């Protein structure tokens, strides 16, 4: 009776009320894309992880303009990433000094060999980033399956219920993934309703370039044509230098993966 009374008193939002998760697109800038791919390729076959910066334009589109990696740590005998809010706040403060005023819109993750799909640990990390941004997105890349001129990348958000899409384009790419141990797509609604799994749904990814970004890409192409090493081109993406302990953790994780 109490539940029925509470349901009767709840306001009816109506079919025209603003809702999220109907047709969403993440617009990734070339700078953010380069940093993510370089970080993922350099750490492969170890998974890389970092923060993506940008702004939410509206309820249907997110603009990703920059990214930076997160430091690594050893925990429980396995290689993990450290999500330190103080580190993220410090990076944002330094970026603000360079007129990079955008905030955290999510995080990126490389899952080598999984075709850019969420892994069984990503829901835990995603919950942490949702404390920084309730509508955080996950950009997953696969450096192993990527090839020259092509890359495997997908974007996701977590859901508490299944979403339907009103977009014809979005309907072609609407997929749900769980964090099940077998790493396979998950569709069992009865199991999901019992709260035994956390589900991501995929959102569209698009790319836009302004004049400055076009000039940067052309300059990188000229550097490669003149015989410059790939390290010169990668100098655009500066990452923290690993300490000796971090290098040891990488070797341990590589040995464990073989």
TrEMBL record:
Gene3D superfamilies: Cytidine Deaminase, domain 2
Record's protein name: Os07g0129600 protein
GO molecular function terms noted in the UniProt entry: metallopeptidase activity
Domain of life of the source: Eukaryota
Listed SUPFAM superfamilies: JAB1/MPN domain
Domain MPN intervals: 26-162
PROSITE patterns: MPN
